[in-house]
């Protein structure tokens, strides 16, 4: 069982907006930023969002992140078929759970 | 171009030790931390530990403490992750990744190394 909680699956049709949630606790999301990664099978994970809301260069602005208290969200607007992947949230954890914790991952399906 | 290139797939017997390398290029090795992440078959990503190549300091997840050793060789810009006493739950893809600070995001990842444990 992962320290950060994500829904196991999400789906949407092309062009839609989908959000993926990530729930934690005071020791991780409550006191540290969240990072989001996109992982396509057989490839290296890719950083999508860092410090909760920042996009690395090259990541489309269709991807956005937010955090409030012990919860965070990744939003993908204008969904495209190539967005079908696994998405993971991660954060530093100040408790014995850490120090780095991942969510269990969300499988995004583009219908 | 920043790259982290990992060593190739490994097949080991139960009880053996595996050592995976992660050679970096395109940046100053000692300016970034190197982390190791495990993905077991059908499972999600799990953080294993990190090394600060600048001073060799390491930090491990509790689950891997004692059986995993992470190190760095600054003479050849390479980080290593060794798992000893391999057992049935160790088959996985292992990734290295870098972060600018100890708590920073993993902005560049290696391609992954598949480890199979089979008698």
The total of beta strands of chain A comes to 9
Order of helices and strands of chain B: EEEEEEEEEEE
Radius of gyration of chain A, taken over Cα atoms and rounded to an integer in Å: 13 Å
Output the number of helix runs of chain A: 0
Uncertain segments of chain A are none
**What spatial form of chain A do the alpha-carbon principal axes imply?**
globular
Write a structural description.
The complex is a heterodimer of chains A (111) and B (119). Chain A is an all-beta fold and 111 residues long. Chain A has strands spanning 9-12, 18-23, 34-39, 46-49, 63-68, 71-76, 85-92, 100-102, 106-110. In chain A, strands 1, 3, 4, 7, 8 and 9 form a 6-stranded mixed sheet that branches. Chain A has a 3-stranded antiparallel sheet with strand order 2-6-5, with no helix packed on it. Chain A is globular and about 40 Å long. Chain A starts with 8 loop residues before the first strand and ends with a strand. Chain B has strands spanning 3-6, 10-12, 18-25, 33-39, 45-52, 57-60, 68-73, 78-83, 92-99, 106-109, 113-117. In chain B, the strands form 2 sheets. In chain B, strands 2, 4, 5, 6, 9, 10 and 11 form a 7-stranded mixed sheet that branches. Chain B has a 4-stranded antiparallel sheet with strand order 1-3-8-7, with no helix packed on it. The A-B interface holds A 2, 32, 35, 37, 39, 43-47, 50-51, 56, 86, 88, 90, 92, 96, 98-105 and B 35, 37, 44-47, 50, 59, 61-62, 95, 97, 103-107, 109-112.
What characteristics describe this protein?
heterodimer; A: 111 residues; mainly beta; 3-stranded antiparallel sheet; 43% strand; globular; B: 119 residues; 4-stranded antiparallel sheet; 0% helix
In short:
The complex is a heterodimer of chains A (111) and B (119). Chain A has 111 residues and is an all-beta fold. In chain A, 0% of the residues lie in helices and 43% in strands.
């Amino acid at each position: 069982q992962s320290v950060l909680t994500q829904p196991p699956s999400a789906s949407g049709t092309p062009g839609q907006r989908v959000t993926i949630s990530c729930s934690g606790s005071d020791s991780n999301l409550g006191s540290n930023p969240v990072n989001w990664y996109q992982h396509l099978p057989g490839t290296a994970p890719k950083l999508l969002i860092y410090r909760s809301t920042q996009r690395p260069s090259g990541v489309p602005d269709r991807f956005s992140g937010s955090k409030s208290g012990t919860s965070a969200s990744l939003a993908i607007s204008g969904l495209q078929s190539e967005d079908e992947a696994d998405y993971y949230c991660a954060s530093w954890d100040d408790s014995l759970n850490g120090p780095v914790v991942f969510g269990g991952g969300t499988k995004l399906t583009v219908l | 171009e920043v790259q982290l290139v990992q060593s190739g797939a490994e097949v080991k017997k139960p009880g053996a030790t595996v050592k995976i390398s992660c050679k970096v290029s395109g940046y100053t090795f000692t300016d970034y931390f190197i982390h190791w992440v495990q993905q077991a078959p059908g499972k999600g990503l799990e953080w294993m530990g990190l090394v600060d190549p600048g001073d060799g300091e390491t930090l491990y997840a509790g689950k891997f403490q004692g059986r995993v050793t992470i190190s760095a060789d600054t003479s050849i810009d390479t980080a290593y992750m060794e798992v000893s006493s391999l057992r049935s739950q160790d088959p996985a893809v292992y990734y290295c990744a870098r972060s600018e600070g100890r708590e920073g995001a993993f902005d560049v990842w290696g391609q992954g190394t598949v480890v199979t444990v089979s008698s």
